[in-house]
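Is WTA placement plausible here? Inputs below.
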Amino acid sequence: MRANSRPPRRDAARRASWQLVLGGNGKMSEVHVHRVQPAWKKNALIDNDTYLKWYADSVKNPDKFWGKHGKRIDWFKPYSKVKNTSFDGKVSIKWFEDGETNVSWNCIDRHLKKRSDQTAIIWEGDNPYDDRKITYNELYAHVCRLANVMKKHGVRKGDRVTIYMPMIPEAAYAMLACTRIGAIHSVVFGGFSPDALAGRIDDCKSSFVITADEGLRGGKPIPLKDNTDKAIEIAAKAGTKVEKVVVVRRTGGKTSWVAERDVWYHEEIATVKAECKPEKMKAEDPLFILYTSGSTGKPKGVLHTTAGYLVYVSMTHQYVFDYHDGDIYWCTADVGWVTGHSYIVYGPLANGATTLMFEGVPNYPSQSRFWEVIDKHKVNIFYTAPTALRALMGAGDAHVTRTSRKSLRVLGTVGEPINPEAWEWYFNVVGNGKVPIVDTWWQTETGGILITPLPGATPLKAGSATRPFFGVKPQLVDGDGKMLDGVASGNLCIADSWPGQMRTVYGDHERFVQTYFSTYKGKYFTGDGCRRDDDGYYWITGRVDDVINVSGHRMGTAEVESALVSHEKVSEAAVVGYPHDIKGQGIYCYVTLMAGEKPNEELRKELVAHVRKDIGAIATPDKIQFAPGLPKTRSGKIMRRILRKIAEDDFAALGDTSTLAEPAVVDDLIANRQNKR
Ligand code: WTA
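Reply from A.M.:
I modeled the complex. Tokens:
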């Protein structure tokens, strides 16, 4: 552990105590329990007694609780029904079903009376000299104009619009413009390849795309429009024709152009009015689709709907970050992921917040960038991922300590388990031991944060996401589905619905039921392993399925395998995750070649490039091991447990290999492992 990642013992003793617990990694360790400091409590929205009372009310009588909190958003037509959900049989989830509202109207129009000149979005460019502020008034005009452009080109309520954008305000305008007219957006992360983009365009049959000429990250251009052109060709072959592409000019870089189909954003918005009436949407009308990886098959289109989602993300944004009027709030995620949807755009804007949108990367132009941006814009609430923290921690404390960070009041993390060393570093070095950390556990499917501390209420333990948010009923079950009480380790399920939950897999409700509700009948299964300690705190241990988490990005091992076997020289592939110091998990690939093919360095590079082309840079394999054979049971099932152990360099504990068809392949795998310590 780094010497300076903990405060001196005496200092610590004043504010904290130590506890021996069985940590998320299954090992006993000493845990630093950080008491809620008086300063955190002082103006906090929720103290511990309030948390306990509200939580008890919320699970005892969800109708009453959410009936009250549903009013935090504005409605064209108020709801009379609150909760109508079932996790059994066909699974049906409806919240506030007879109410009518509109998301963009809630995120913009209703604030105009009080906040028209308040900054809604602070945009911080990749280049530190490049920034912009957009007031709520300006946001209104931008969103209305783009909504009118979409209408002019025939986009109607219920149509799917694909957004493939860099982190520029126009990405938020595009999302909000869709919600204004009732179109369903599907944002695709700008790091995905043309193939991956094409698959997502085709899956939801989207004929309208909004993109930019190029993105810019760490000084390097990203050819978004060229990628879009390629994707449109691929999608056309699959049977989906894209009719219109709106292109934002970001860099002015050269791109190809298809007359008739492609239009410039800046030219189009000049032709329409800056006012557009928000469409009256039913509470359960679809809001957006977001593709995410699972254990099997291609990515699923997670579908979120209008009202429940907005109520949930605005409420969690307010209470989890203890958001107060006037706070400057910054979440470093990309809008291509759910964190960007819920906690850069919808949650903060529904609350009339000032939300910072960052185009760049943590280490450009220097390792101090995050902290410089915090000082420059006086950021009060900062929300980032453990992978970024580990990388910055490795660069040394001086990059942090040379900045002030005095404005900080709440720190947050999300995306993967945070190791206690990184947590303590975040707390002591970034927060100077004075700022609470909220370690928020949630998923694309959950829409918003489910397990988290509240800054003024929850004593903190480094590495634990602590306690459930209002209305959330976590349960641990063993492999047979038996519910485990008290201190226990098991699979994390949620026993009942909350308003922000996904409603279905777009176009495939059966897959929704199968994936989330069939493993443990009547419960939502998260795919995560988890431990509950004797304070009732939850410690997420990571995925128990074939999903890996690389730098906080979720990836299905099946997707990487299918990319590998699509290479002509590959006959079979198996992919597993292994612990990686910075990324959390790395991608380890076992590859069996076609008969007659010889393994060599060049082929290894070719396979890495092949996967990058097929999925995108985020799927770049870290290790490729050429394997003459994979360990299989006599019925032909690959024994991933063994592959995981070898990738972790932990082959002494391979467990029972007697059911293997050919035990000898294991010796070869061990001898040629790529991760020798
Ligand atoms: C993991 C991101 C531990 C978890 C919002 C989950 C976490 C998956 C945490 C969802 C956390 C997210 N502690 N693990 N605080 N937050 N995860 O869909 O494995 O991209 O199932 O949503 O990330 O990833 P997704």
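Short version: The CA atoms of residues 625 and 674 lie 6 Å apart.
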